[in-house]
Amino acid sequence: MTTIDDGRAYGRESGEADPELVEVGPGTRAGELLRRYWHPVGRSEEATTQPRTVSVLGEELVLFRDRSGTPGLIEPRCCHRGTTLYFGRVEENGIRCPYHGWLFAADGRCLDQPCEPDRGRNKTSYRQPWYPVFDYHGLLFTYMGPAHKQPLFPRYDIFEDLDEETEEMVIIDHFAFGGPTVAPCNWFQTHENAMDPYHVFILHNAISGPQFDPKLEIWPRISFQRHAWGVTATQDRDLPDGTTLHRVTEIRVPTVRVIPTPTLSVLGKTNNLSWALPIDDTHTRVFAMVRKPKGLPPQGLPVYGGDKSWFDLTDEEHQLYPGDYEAQVGQGAITRHSVERLASSDRGVSMVRRQFKEQVRVVADGGDPVGVTFDGDGAESVIAGNYIIGPDTDLDTIPLSETLR
Amino acid sequence: MTTIDDGRAYGRESGEADPELVEVGPGTRAGELLRRYWHPVGRSEEATTQPRTVSVLGEELVLFRDRSGTPGLIEPRCCHRGTTLYFGRVEENGIRCPYHGWLFAADGRCLDQPCEPDRGRNKTSYRQPWYPVFDYHGLLFTYMGPAHKQPLFPRYDIFEDLDEETEEMVIIDHFAFGGPTVAPCNWFQTHENAMDPYHVFILHNAISGPQFDPKLEIWPRISFQRHAWGVTATQDRDLPDGTTLHRVTEIRVPTVRVIPTPTLSVLGKTNNLSWALPIDDTHTRVFAMVRKPKGLPPQGLPVYGGDKSWFDLTDEEHQLYPGDYEAQVGQGAITRHSVERLASSDRGVSMVRRQFKEQVRVVADGGDPVGVTFDGDGAESVIAGNYIIGPDTDLDTIPLSETLR
Amino acid sequence: MTTIDDGRAYGRESGEADPELVEVGPGTRAGELLRRYWHPVGRSEEATTQPRTVSVLGEELVLFRDRSGTPGLIEPRCCHRGTTLYFGRVEENGIRCPYHGWLFAADGRCLDQPCEPDRGRNKTSYRQPWYPVFDYHGLLFTYMGPAHKQPLFPRYDIFEDLDEETEEMVIIDHFAFGGPTVAPCNWFQTHENAMDPYHVFILHNAISGPQFDPKLEIWPRISFQRHAWGVTATQDRDLPDGTTLHRVTEIRVPTVRVIPTPTLSVLGKTNNLSWALPIDDTHTRVFAMVRKPKGLPPQGLPVYGGDKSWFDLTDEEHQLYPGDYEAQVGQGAITRHSVERLASSDRGVSMVRRQFKEQVRVVADGGDPVGVTFDGDGAESVIAGNYIIGPDTDLDTIPLSETLR
Questions:
Q1: What pTM was estimated for this model as a whole?
Q2: What are phi and psi for residue A146, nearest 5 degrees?
Q3: Mapping DSSP to helix (H, G, I), strand (E, B) and coil, where does residue A300 land?
Q4: Interface contact B336-C77, CB threshold 8 A
Q5: Which H or E run includes B62?
Q6: Which residues lie across from B288 on neighbouring strands?
Q7: Which of A49, A83, A112, A148 is the best substitution to test chain C (most C C-beta atoms within 10 A)?
Q8: How does pLDDT run across A192-209, given as a tens digit for each residue?
Q9: Chain C residues closer than 8 Å to B339 by CB
Q10: Interface-testing mutation among C96, C99, C372, with chain B (most B C-beta atoms within 10 A)
Q11: Inter-chain contact A100–C202, Cβ cutoff 8 Å?
Q12: Chains with ≥3 Cβ pairs under 8 A against C?
């Protein structure tokens, strides 16, 4: 009897993840790349005089806002004897440890040591570990890398020059616009999905759909573009009225994904942009920022089984109508890249991975990764959108229009 | 002061399990022996067009039945990008991954790749890891070993030639006939119990009893027999009416235990047989198959505290009326053999262990273990039963009757 | 750009615990010191004919009382085949394993083996691992060290010569006199708190207070004293009426803390004493014994937020009114000593740690630690108390009064 290879499961490899894609903790190669950028940690209104715990890149931190209005993000363990400052008392200029009363400013300086002689003759030698916080349109960001590498906060053109009379900014933090806020899986497998336009036809249409605008059911011409700052995909669909729907999505290193609303409720340049937040190696949260006219809903949510929200579904209906949550969390807590077999439709995913790993190596080699700037105004220009192109459209005004010429 | 040995607990060893008895995972020595046999995975009606997760020998798998009626048992992770096929859509000839739509037959062949050119020019080079499934009287079995070592499915004489008019087969899957379906402990400690007739007098009579037929309270003559295929125990009890109750129980390598009903509701050769299913190293399920006249209950269940079922008991009553579940799970998630001290009443248990370990070594050395056949009809003959022997009984018709001569 | 040190959290050490302070398990250095003393395991009424599981120093044990009244504390796994004796049947002179009926006395001797020839010809060669139990005023203690090192049980003077007519002993086992019974953190960080008088002014007064008697808000003169058997702190407060409140607290190696009631309901020598019980490395229970007049409550409990008990508080109120539980559990499951920065107010804590580690080394080097005696009556004299000192007080009657002279 000789060995038969009929592909059965006996002896298959269990496989492993690529650490350069998935690790987020301090000291890991990918974690050090992530630590060269600003990351969202919560809505501005979540920083209050009641301290709360937040987890970012595998680090548990305490977020608060002192009574003078300054937000603080600090190591929970008091630098003295280690009691958590989650139980600290927030005062005018900082947070006070409940155990021995040491008072720390939002930037970690020790302002008072009431049980020490002269309330702390030596208190300037103590500092509670801290991170800087930046408020961008109501979303708080932090930079968790080395001090001398702190970049400017990047400002996106689509969110500039808001007309406060008629427009407003909305922050949405449910995973994949509909579904749980936190996905119990690694962030990267949720991220690369944004450069995988093919799954829309299967997951969101053939299997569970239509979850989005019916025009997205038309099979498009797809191409991918590599940029210094990320990767884009273009999808061109010839519509029945003779126009073309030219849809551009983008991923920016490291965690930004720009996906124009798939309900096509907004045409032209996108009005929203999302940041993946790697909470730790196996949990991910997504913060989306949407610019919209006052009084209108931000965008339609995907529907399941015809007219249900994700939370309305039974277990069996989740099996019948899977969405982004099921497909991505369904790859496991951390997908195992070594037992994947990529095919031609995975080209965008491959490009995103390759670029990310290149930047991991740039940082490991002592360099500065793409997308960080240390001077200027930090302005960045987004190109993603749903563009309707007719015979009279000036293609020079349409990003990445060469695919249509 | 010199050291005193008064047996106190200070310095005792914590002990360890014998890996050749307890490990079930792929690549382990005992796991490789187990993988040379067929194992039950669920009732036939559990394989439907709604995929379900099953765990067997430490492997998590997806069970389904395609719309043409073929059951499938496959690796959950899609071989493409790893999304679980638990969320797959079952079609006429297979299961389709929800993420990119790859369609796999029950035997793993890839039948469609809708996002690839020509729906997958190269699709025959992909195969989803799979295991074969065999339906035996409504219970599904799988073989998880190497393809070229796949044995015939063993058919037991006691389940042959069913008279469909008057008889039926019933599958019972609660642990120890009464109690939870899944026991949170290693399978082997549940298995060797079947060759431990002494505990019946203590656990099921003196401590908690009588849980079974009162005749079993009579102290019997006990002997054990080693066979090529397993171990048997005979218990002979002299009954008040001058007859002898000759009870034979058997264990067959690797996981079959044949225990004639202890309520003595069936006399003669047994009408039931059980398979232990090692779910993983610390969880066990037992599937029993019972042949019975239509319209009658399969067998009485053990009672606790006089007239209660296992599920009716309070915590304190579980302490007062322990049964098989408490005794076996009470040995720990995995019992620690190195701190046992076997005595003469453990002879049957020792024989079962010794034979199992011998077969582990046969497989490790490249051989084929007992009880697997590659040609013929797979028929096996069971000998266990409750035999009443009177002065006129022809002992030649009674299995293992030499103990009575 | 050069590296900036602004104290931010990037690159901070996560730190580690000192194993000589925190480990409690068998074979660890600190665990071996702890095993040279008696430890409380439960109230006398918890040892009954219904076996119960208790965990002490990282060992899970079974506590019972045979029908003749003798309490037993034994290894749960039967020495025969390993079934837990939690399901054992308690009889006149011991506990019987439910599986094969072996009967063990409270001191582990095997008294019966009903399935063995002659009910166990060789039974004296078996012994169930056991520990001795001592009942002290209704609290059961065990000694888990080597037999030849078993010390006398220490009897405290404050609990001798009880007037049974008018006095009674009360055992209180909630953590920190108000709050959960079991604290999910290492025992040592709860213990050293008793030699940290400064936190009283902050935690129990400025932050959450007053939780205790208002006199304790007066800032005292504090000093610490090292003794052969432990460490004491004295706090001297000049009261408005010209008297001095002289408060002495003590810690005795290894786990005894003597903290006179902070509500000052008892003056003079303390009426209570507590033992920390290290359940395992990350769980701690405290047993306090209080001597009191019949008919009076044992002592006031701390109040939170003015008039609430710990259990009445919402999550937000626990943040607003932290107490001992929050401060000590808030140091983490096991505090990390290497990232502490002790200051002058931590002198008492440092003394307790130093002495404990010295004793760890005494035992590791083969010696006998302080506080164990092998002959005599085991009597020990406590000195802690709340002493009011006026102009006429004879200072020679006040312990540690040199701080006042």
A1: 0.94
A2: -65, 145
A3: coil
A4: yes
A5: strand B59-65
A6: B172, B274
A7: A83
A8: 999 999 998 888 888 887
A9: 77, 79, 82
A10: C99
A11: yes
A12: A, B
Q: What is the rounded CA–CA span in Å between residue B110 and residue B103?
A: 6
| Cβ contact, residue pair C331, A100, below 8 Å | no
Joined tokens for residue C6: 């602004």
| Neighboring chain C residues of A128 at a CB cutoff of 8 Å | 7
Q: Beta strand pairing status for A221-226 and A230-238? A: antiparallel
Measured between CB atoms, does B169 come within 8 Å of chain A?
A: no
Bridge partners of residue C385, in order along the sequence: C248, C269
* CA nearest to B288, candidates B398, B185, B384: B384
- Chain centroid to Cα B362, Å, comes to 21
> In angstroms, rounded to a whole number, what is the distance separating the alpha carbons of residues B283 and C43?
36
Question: Over chain A, what is the mean pLDDT?
Answer: 93
Q: Which of B162-171, B295-304, B348-357, C267-276 has the lowest mean pLDDT?
A: B295-304
Residues whose CB is less than 8 angstroms from the CB of residue B185 and which lie 6 or more positions away in sequence, other chains included: B282, B283, B284, B328, B329, B331, B332, B333, B334, B335
C197's tokens: 């008088």
A50 with C319: Cβ contact below 8 A: yes
In angstroms, how far apart are the furthest CA atoms of chain A? 87
Subunits next to B (3 or more Cβ pairs <8 Å) are A, C
Residue that has been written with the tokens 């009076």 in this structure: C296
Does A32 reach chain C within 8 Å, measured CB to CB? Answer: no
pLDDT in tens, A247-306: 999 999 999 999 998 878 888 999 999 999 999 999 999 999 999 999 887 766 677 777
Residues A10, B145: C-beta atoms closer than 8 Å: yes
Q: Residue C7 and residue B2: Cα distance in Å, rounded?
A: 57
A331 closest CB neighbour out of B83, B108, B130: B83
- What are the tens digits of pLDDT across the range B169-217? 999 877 776 788 899 999 999 999 999 999 988 888 888 877 777 777 7
Does any CB of chain C come closer than 8 Å to the CB of residue A61? Answer: yes
% pLDDT > 90, chain C: 81
Residue type, B152: L
Q: How is A2-13 classified by DSSP, letter by letter?
A: ------BSTT--
Q: What are phi and psi of C145, to 5 degrees?
A: -100, -170
- Cα angle A299, A300, A301; round to 5: 115
Lowest mean pLDDT among A25-39, B290-304, B327-341, C363-377: B290-304
Residue type, C184: P
Contact yes or no for A10 and B89 at CB 8 A: no
Residue C394 Rama label (left phi>0; alpha psi -120 to 50; beta): beta
Shortest CA gap B41–chain A (Å): 15
Instruction: Kindly state the tokens that stand for B298.
Output: 């399969």
Q: What ipTM score was computed for the predicted complex, to two decimals?
A: 0.94
DSSP C321: S
CA pair distance C215, C246, nearest whole angstrom: 11
The CA-based angle A367-A373-A378, given to 5 degrees, is 165
